[in-house]
Structure formats: C-alpha cells, structure tokens
Amino acid sequence: MWLVAVSVPLIPVVIVAFSRYGGLFTALCHRALAWTHRVLLRRKVCVRSTHAYVFSNCTHGKVDSVLETFDLYGNTHPSLSISPQMSAVLDEAVMRVRPSLVLELGMHCGYSSVRLLRLLPPAGRLVTVEVDPVTAELGEEILLVAGFKHSQFQVLTSSSARAIPTLRLHVGADKGASEGFGLVLMDHDPQQYLPDLIALEREELLSPSGCTILLINRTQRHGDVGDVVAHVSGRSDFYSVRSEHCFMVEIVYCRKPTNVL
C-alpha cells in the first residue's frame, strides 16, 4: 500500500515528462532494440562456422564454387550472406555501373566482397571496411581462397566512422582514385548509413561524375534507410533515388552533368 501512496503523486509528473520527451524516449527505445537485434544476430550467426564450412567444401580458386558453398551453408544455417534477391540486384548494379573503385562497409564473412570483386574490370579494386577483427581476418582469407590477389582488394579493420577520413590515403595511389569511388555498398550499422554518406561526400570520396550507393536493408523496415532517403530527396541537385526495394535502396550521386542514371 505504501508503494501505491508514493506512486500516485508522481503520476502527473510522469505524464508531463512523457508528453515533453516522449519522442526522445521512443527514439532511444528504437536504438536499444536495434542494437539488441544486431548483437543477438551476431551471436546466433557464427562467423567461424561459416568460414570453416566454405573453406572446407568449396573448390579453392573457383569464385563460383565459393559463392555456391556460401549459399549451401545459408540453406541450413543462420547466415549473414545477402539473399538471392539482394544478390541479383547487386550484380545488376555492378554490371551496369562498371566501377573501377568500390567501397564496401560491412564485410560479413566475405560473401558480398566476392560477388563484387568477380564483376569488377581487370584493373578494378575493392576496399572493404569491417569493424570486427575476426570477421575481417576470416573474410580476407575467403577472398584469397576465391582466387583474388591482395592487389585487387584491401581489408581495413575499423569502424566506418574512423575509416572514412583515412580512405584517401589508402586509395590515393590508385589509377582514377582522384575521381573517388564509383560504387559504395553499405551493409553495416544502419544508424551509420546517413553519417557515413555525409562523411564520404565531405571527404570528396564519391566520384563526382557518378557514384552508386547501395543500402542493404536487412530488417526491411523503412525506418532503417528512411533518413537517408529523406536526406537525398532534399538534395535533388546532387542525388537521386534510382530504385527502392524492401531489402535494398539504390541512390545515385553526381556533381557533373550527365544524362545517364
């Protein structure tokens, strides 16, 4: 009874506080749930098991065999590999854009990295950023197993926020690097999509003649990519949304006049 007596006078205070800060409270709850989801998914998906299965069952040096083995693993185990639908959209975008320099944020065992590298031109290069050291190390080994050489890719173990300001140092010696990245794949923390896009533009890392940005939406909730879509929609002078799927959004950035989207 004493708890009820103490609580009743606080009800008006709680109501007023919620009316003023309800939006902030809801946003914090959403962030907490998103973080919990990512942590639980990471724990459920064993990167080492994925790597061991692919390493042991694929034909080394054969790109298609590596991808097929990833798919076989994903049929019976939790996997961070993108779905066949995402893969088809990704492949189409890479073949259409034909970028010489690609940035991947979020490596996830190396599946998307392999898909990207196999479609790049002979002089093409991939820079992939992965915050988890184990995932980065095992993903790099998968790229080597698939037959790619270190001259074709670079794996940076870092958060995207820390890596982006240093990327010019890593790609500065590349042919065409002054033009920046022709394609960016974001498949890391959705809450970093917008800050990282802004940072990439600020650091002049997006090719001014045209850069395609692909946002993976694993939860298929519009809220995970909605802030990015709202941002680019308000900057139609530089950005356009080329396509929106429930699982992926394709954005085009261009500072130079062009008739091609």
UniProtKB/TrEMBL annotation:
GO function terms (MF aspect): catechol O-methyltransferase activity
Pfam families: Methyltransf_3
EC id: 2.1.1.6
GO BP annotation list: catecholamine catabolic process; developmental process; dopamine metabolic process; methylation
Keywords of this entry: Catecholamine metabolism, Membrane, Methyltransferase, Neurotransmitter degradation, S-adenosyl-L-methionine, Transferase, Transmembrane
PROSITE patterns (UniProt xref): SAM_OMT_I
Class in the EC hierarchy, top level: transferase
Coiled-coil region(s): none
Keyword Transmembrane: yes
Keyword DNA damage belongs to the record: no
Gene3D superfamilies: Vaccinia Virus protein VP39
Family: Belongs to the class I-like SAM-binding methyltransferase superfamily. Cation-dependent O-methyltransferase family.
The name this protein goes by in its record: catechol O-methyltransferase
